[in-house]
Amino acid sequence: MISSKILLEKTGISRATLNNYIKSGLVARPLVMNPGSEGDGPRQLGYFPDMVEDRIRQIRQLKREGLSMVEIVSRFVSKPAAGEPEFSSGALKTGPVLAHTEPCLADRSLALQGGGLQLTVDELAHPAYMLNYNFELIWFNAAAQKAVFGGIETLPATSAERNLFRLISGQADSEATEKLMRFHVRLAKARIPASHFATLCQGVAAPLAAHLQELFADAPVDAPRQMLHVPLMLPDVAENGGLREHTAYASFFREGVFIVDVPEGSDSDSLLDFLARRDEVIRGLLKRRLPVLTHLAVMVADLQGSVRICSEMPPEEYFELINEIWAAMGPIFRRYHGTYAKHVGDGMVYYFFPQPDSNYLSNALLCAQEARREMQRISKAWQIRKNWLNELYLNTGITEGQEWLGTFQSSTSVELVVLGDTINQAARISDFARHGTIWATKSLVGKLSSEERARLRYGVQRRSHDGRDIFVASSFSTVSALIEGDSTRAAKLNDISTLPITEVVEIQEAA
Asked: How much is the pTM?
């Protein structure tokens, strides 16, 4: 048996890290006993099987290889090494536990010094920052400001000016700058197709853009994983600009890449434990996301006649219907890179931001079309189930603009919020739409490429002199002209009366 005190000394891990290993089931609960001859310290110490020292070394090696704590736990639980005791309920079988053993704590000093205390984003002492997949800087701490970004005082306002390569290219030409470039190009290659990497180099000088392309071609191809770690030389702020070896840990999230640079000789166990708590990490980062002026498309979709439908159904069935709709729509929005904003009653709001490998405007239109098809399927299923004649329609409005993006926060949630007229226009267009139609603004259609517009069938209905409705393709109309004679709707839509819009009938997907 080995005491917790000696175990910490021999392995070099912190008390908080050992406590986390116990909580994760990677290390057995200790036997708490009187230390006897060890005893000028605590009256009781936790004692572990001797093999725990080897287990901790294995865990640290797997962390260095880039595995998350979740992956490490899964590996040990499902495939115990030959000769090792099996896990039981996540803990090693070590015989009966003494009655006074404190669950999940190695000893009383762990409870006082490390138990329950976990690293947070605010406590990161090493350089840390986050990029979206356009490689635009969306958050950084003070250490990264000095060591990585050359001491920039504030981030530029627009998303394009926050391009990582533009920020780094403004620094003095040096070995550290070159290594930074290579490291971030390697990260880009892990997620961005070669055909779209050039979009990440927009705004940098032509010679540097060509150099970045060369680095991309030469960069190694890393296997898909949740975390990548790479050696990196960075300025050591404490040494007045001298270089120091770091290990850069890059964690990949749906929202972007989170990077922490750990100096050589520093204990990285607490950091790796922190990065393993992925949901907690991303919530903490989103709370600290800096407001940015960005281009985006906004899609608002609302269930037509929801008040009437609700009145005709038992409450449990209505909630079942709404939950079925939103559950079916979720994968569609993810497929087209839609970012959830909020539900508005029975409706929903999604944002579509620029992507390195697709057009965010086309993404919004294609997403709306697929959501409409899914709604038609759900409508038919409920008509059969209820034996009713109700048609379920999702009325959709889409527009685009450049607005400030930030977050509203409560104690339990973080909500991405767009300030400006774009979201209000999309909501009003959704109010205008009827019978599951999709309407988009002229400004959005006008910003599509000629190839994208060629795949788009759009236009407005016109009334001929003899009273017939004629669809005029590739045309637009102001909202006021489309609701002429309907005073009730005119009053409700007065704020977008002069906005030119068009009905999107069909979008052919690219071959």
From this structure: 0.71
